[in-house]
Amino acid sequence: MRSEQILSAKDIMNFCYCPRIIYYEHVLKIPQSTTKKELKGREKYDEFKKKSRRCKIIREFPKLNKLYDVYLRSDKLNVQTRVDCIAVNEMKKEAYPIQIKYASKPVKLYQAQKLQMLLEAALIEEQMSYAVPLGFIKFLKTNELVAVYTKSKSDLENVVYQIQQLISTETFPNQTKFKKRCIDCCYRGKCWLE
Length: 194
What we know:
Elements lengths: L6 E2 H9 L1 H9 L8 H17 L12 E10 L4 E11 L4 E8 L9 H18 L5 E6 L4 E6 L4 H16 L10 H5 L10
Parallel strand pairs: 1-3, 4-5
Antiparallel strand pairs: 2-3, 3-4, 5-6
Helix pairs in contact: 1-2, 1-4, 2-5
């Protein structure tokens, strides 16, 4: 049995995509390869950062102070992340995490996107002592901003627990039920499909 290790937002998103990614990376220690899509996303994030320093991102709010690339870690939840951008309203003692996605806005937000937002909200509340009533996801390909409400943190705690259990027991999980995800997976050639 392995001891608990610190998890990242990427681990939570990977678990939602397919639990086997966690198994390959954390139990078998097979590193993930960086995809062209990830590299393009980083490039677009750098462009966003430059542009957004001069203008409003969230039209509904007055011009707020913005923090970029904020590293947050919680020993209580045993998770860490780097938040793309945090808009801070000092008067209300509120903060609004902003995720940058080099993608088009989906018809419906994915579970992984919601959990990433919950993670960022929980860490901002714990580490920075701001209330986080909602966060935003900026979809760069369609230039759309979507609000995500951050009330239920229990979903996040449940997923963190499931990931820690998978790693500590070294249990080989079932693959995703969405077979199309296997086509795009970085472990495609290594995965033992059932």
